[in-house]
Amino acid sequence: MSENLIEFNNISKFFGKVIALKDVTMKLKKGEIMCLLGDNGAGKSTLIKTLAGVHKPDEGEIVIEGEKTVFDSPKDALDMGIGTVYQDLALVPLMSVTRNFFMGREPLKGPPFLKTFDIEKANQIAAERMGQIGIDVRDPSQAVGTMSGGERQCLAISRAIYFGAKVLVLDEPTSALGVHQASMVLKYVVKAASQGLAVILITHNVHHAYPVGNSFTVLNRGKSLGTFNKKDISREELLGMMAGGEELDKLEVELEEMNRINN
Amino acid sequence: MSDKSKSITSKKTSGQDERLKEVSKLRLLLNRPELGAVGGAILVFIFFGIVAGDTGMFSAYGTLNFLDVSANLGIIAIAAAMLMIGGEFDLSIGSMIGFAGICIAIPAIYWGWPLWVSIIFAFAMAVLVGYFNGILVVKTGLPSFIVTLAMLFILRGATLAITRLITGRTQVPGLRVLIENDPIAWMFATDTFKWLFTWLGSMNLIALRTDGTPLATGIPPSVIWFIAATLFATWILMKTRYGNWIFASGGDKNGATNVGVPVGRVKISLFIGTAVAATIFATIQVLDAGSADTMRGNLKELEAIAAAVVGGCLLTGGYGSAIGAAFGALIFGTVSMGIFYTDVDTDWFKVFLGAMMLIAVVFNNYIRKRVTESK
Q1: ipTM of predicted complex
Q2: Taken in order A154, A160, A166, A169, is the CA torsion positive or negative?
Q3: In this predicted model, what pLDDT tens digit does every residue of B349-364 receive, in sequence order?
Q4: Please, where in chain A does CATH 3.40.50.300 lie?
Q5: Domains in chain B: boundaries
Q6: Tens of pLDDT, residues B85-113
Q7: Burial readout B130-153 (b: 16 or more C-beta within 10 A, e: otherwise)
Q8: Which of A54, A78, A92, A106 is the best mutation test for B, with the most CBs of B within 10 A?
Q9: pTM of model > 0.90
Q10: Does domain A1-80 have CATH number 3.40.30.10?
Q11: Which of A94, A108, A137, A157 to mutate to test binding with chain B, by most B CBs within 10 Å of its CB?
């Protein structure tokens, strides 16, 4: 009966005495982009790994399409439609676009026991999928190493969607990218959401998150500072809420001071 | 890695990125890993064609001679190349050859086993050794260089110790008489296409002995195994899911694991592959010589790796080809035999081998940069 695609209810995770996450709650609907903001050490990585089935939460529950779920392994999470794109993207630069796209899940053809990798079909799907994002792969047999950072990110996202992701978890998809490349990736993320996916975008860059997010959850030292709808909060308020916010205010004051002295 | 599809290439006429020049066939060829080895082989043949063209090196007998040497090396080089593509080394190949040799000879001569049972026993031992190598590397996370270096000493030492313990010597002769009528041994000991050579001899197209039989009697079994191994390995690498997993495991272990590639299983199977290839090498040589020697296969692991590197395999894994390794072996075999037909002292062979490897590594490094950074 729940209209939420995925719910995280009061999730906590402890490593020995260290409280990595405490009572984190998030809810996502289809087509929604939620940005998870937090500075380094806020617990983002732990949360991603809990989403991806790498860690089991010590407290709280994960609810997918109204049903309580426990992920025993990353494969479980994948089977439930949680597609996680890690920062390292799981792409092999020396391998072709096609071979990367289908890595571990190659389409097969031929008789039983003599099944071969259906490279023609794989090439066609890979080129088609990349074309939909507006990336023209001249030749799907070209090495991924020849692609730009943004193109690689899009390839990894496109792969996750093709293999049945309903919830996309993106770990710092724009952190290593220039403005142009980042906007290409964000445009694609918005497009994916408009097709009915729920997207969890993890970032520490408010300027990348704010234009695309529908809601924002701020993590600080393992705790959620709350989830805010876009209309309820400004970019500056968000920035202030992240651990870096106060320090940035301080920096601003100091800079003004310096300017005053110089003039 | 270049899986070209006609339907894709024909579709790319509209909406093409204006910054890109049309990629020529030549450029695509330049990006293939085996290019260096094929080019090198052509150069080697041209060289010996000029300096040794009239010496009998390229007669039927001479050709089969250098092909036989190349083929023996090629069988282990291809397995070594596949393992290198999968991101690991096997330094125990040479010791495995010696070990497999006595695994055939001692049961057959001293324990009275039929030869074919001894051969199967040797292959079973190879699977065990390969599995042990693989599981050690995968479970401990130690570099395969170290693990298999240890296995190099263990296997060679065990071979020597066991042989001397049982036979009191380091050689086990007397196998030749067992080959006849054996249900398996012929696969490793019979020359093929004999009729062709007999016919060529009767037409006086190839050199004959004084009794009228041709000097070259047929294609040696090593060459057949070599060709079969090249085709099989290439098919696996280019056309199967397992082949894609090999590239992925060697290219980025963590990435491959994250998308569900069973990296551990892939690597273990590749270690079994090198041990089995060493055993094929050993079986052919033992049956050809009629005896097993504890020192057989000494340093072969390094020649196999050298051939794989000349053939375009990167030492860091994830890149290379079986055809390249085959051509790398062909270069070494041709030069090691061809040098007898020239005025050059054969002592220089190792110098050549080393120089060839250096050039290959520099060249391959350049190729890899082109492939991954040609934005």
Answers
A1: 0.81
A2: negative
A3: 888 888 888 888 888 7
A4: 1-80
A5: 59-183+194-373
A6: 999 999 999 999 999 999 999 999 999 99
A7: bebbbebbbeeeeebeebbbebbe
A8: A92
A9: no
A10: no
A11: A94
